[in-house]
């Protein structure tokens, strides 16, 4: 279970926090939220003292079977953009390589007591265990860790009734502006961005990846809502047309260069404009479908938040031992490399290898072929797809893999 107790972990409680005895230094730990705009931990921390913005490149995370060099490339590009953005505000992003508790211990030794801020994370089991270790570390030292809700996913949710209404309310909240100025922290080494090989990642030929960074995400949002998205409703099922007419925001949402809230609100504004124009050109239906999928995205992430075991265990025990848990290596290799001899399947897998993206119906199709035609247990091909997806989001990925 992801049920973590303690008021410092509770979202939406900032109004009740008394900061009289808080240390002056505020460390903002960036995870899958690589932006300064609509970033409540950054804004709240800046109201309370000097901010040390921090990203921890964790070799343990990147050693997991769902991580890859193509994902790190996107993250590194996004970190470079975030560092420049924060530097223009006065204090660039600090990057450290190592275990999170070791990095925090070193900062604690150098700077003394601090307050830690971050967004909640619904990630894989490794990231949850890491957060538990950080929680124990902060409590042992009397350090406050304030975790805020980043999207429509609700921690410690007791029942799902009214979830969609609460999602709408969360998305309608005002966007949080970034701090205009961050005082520079003296004698702070910002640290170099590690390479993929520095993190132990193997070479990953991805010849046509989506570039990372917030500006790239904003461009994708603008071009989708104003140009590319018109035939979205019919084009999103096609692997070729979908590559052009889908939003292509998924990696930016997965790594947080844009927030779900700003995507939702921008799409709402655009839909109002289209409605006022009373045009019958497909835009209204396209945006209706797109907004439904924004709901869908957090809905599935909520499933992993509530049932984290779906990353490893069958939804239903009737599926236990139906397939061999050790996959047929030859079949898995052929499927992974687009060499099954099924032309459409192979074309999709080769496209995925080259770009890091595949439209949602083809994701379902290639997984179904692995499960039924090749009779592979879902975990091994699921890990392979996770590595290939630049936009890998555990909360969407594992429930969908199991469903197929």
Q: What characteristics describe this protein?
A:
404 residues, alpha/beta, 5-stranded parallel beta sheet, 17 helices, 6% strand, globular, disordered N terminus
Descriptive report:
The chain has 404 residues and is an alpha/beta fold. It is 49% helix and 6% strand. The protein has helices at 40-46, 59-62, 69-89, 100-111, 125-140, 163-172, 214-228, 232-235, 239-245, 250-255, 260-277, 283-306, 329-336, 343-355, 360-373, 379-388, 394-403; strands at residues 26-30, 51-57, 94-97, 115-119, 145-148. The radius of gyration is 21 Å and the shape is globular. It starts with 25 loop residues before the first strand and ends with a helix.
**What is the number of strand segments?**
5
Q: Helix/strand/pairing class, anyone?
A: alpha/beta
**Count of individual helical segments:** 17
Q: Which series of helices and strands comes N to C?
A: EHEHHEHEHEHHHHHHHHHHHH
Shape: globular
Report strand %.
Answer: 5-15%
Distance between the termini: 24 Å
Helix content: 40-55%
Biggest β-sheet description: 5 strands, parallel
Which parts are unreliable, with pLDDT below 50 for 5 consecutive residues or more?
3-22
**What is the radius of gyration computed over CA atoms, rounded to a whole number of angstroms?**
21 Å
Mean pLDDT: 93
Topology:
Layout (H helix, E strand, L loop, with lengths): L25 E5 L9 H7 L4 E7 L1 H4 L6 H21 L4 E4 L2 H12 L3 E5 L5 H16 L4 E4 L14 H10 L41 H15 L3 H4 L3 H7 L4 H6 L4 H18 L5 H24 L22 H8 L6 H13 L4 H14 L5 H10 L5 H10 L1
Parallel strand pairs: 1-2, 1-4, 2-3, 4-5
Helix pairs in contact: 11-12, 12-17
